[in-house]
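During the second half of the funding period, the structural biology subgroup turned its attention to how the target accommodates small molecules. The most pressing case was zinc ion, which had performed well in the primary screen but for which no bound structure existed. We therefore specified the complex as follows and requested a full 3D prediction, including the ligand pose.
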Amino acid sequence: MFTGHYAASLAARAAGPRAPLWVYVGASQLLDFGWAGLVLAGVEKVGFDEKLPGSPLDLYFMPYTHSLTAAIGWSLAAMLVARRFWPGWEALLIGLTVFSHWLLDALVHRPDLLLYWPFSPDDRKLGLGLWNLPVPEMALEMGLLGLAAAMLTAQRVRERRSAWPILLFFAALVALQIYALLAPPATDAAGFAITALGAYSAMVVLAALVDTGKRGKASR
Ligand SMILES: [Zn+2]
């Protein structure tokens, strides 16, 4: 799951309009921001196998960002930080957006998500493995993204605000997904992590540019 994660941020922005889109966008990829940082630091590990269907990633060690308990911990931490800025509903939505990342990963990853905490004696791993069926997997990502973009666009039209920033953001995500599909397969962990951090950061900046969270005159 790559751009499909952003569906959660678009839907959360529609449900919690007081927090800006860029915060939800960062929240939806918080676990992967952490993952790419820890891969760069050599703490979490990734391998690449071009023969794997759907995604060449062999995510054999990522307990601090992608175990179920770690994901719950990061989600709660994000919610607590968010409460300082958006008390109430939006803070809860931000925490849920962080956690949505793990749920969506659990649908598509091969079993590589630890059920418990790092180094727990029970090292069962979850992952329904939709990556093994690349066409339905991509249809799911694009479908979720399209649905969430339509939700947010409809809300903005109802509020008599311009819908183009959301459509622009959606188009950028589709372009990024097409690039990711066509780019030569990654072979080196550090290079891949740097590219991933660049892409995640670019989407946060783009979200901040297209949608500041301010309401238009019509909705005041
Ligand atoms: Zn992930």
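Two results from this model are relevant to the next phase. DSSP finds nine helices and four strands in the chain. The first strand starts at residue 45 and ends at 48.
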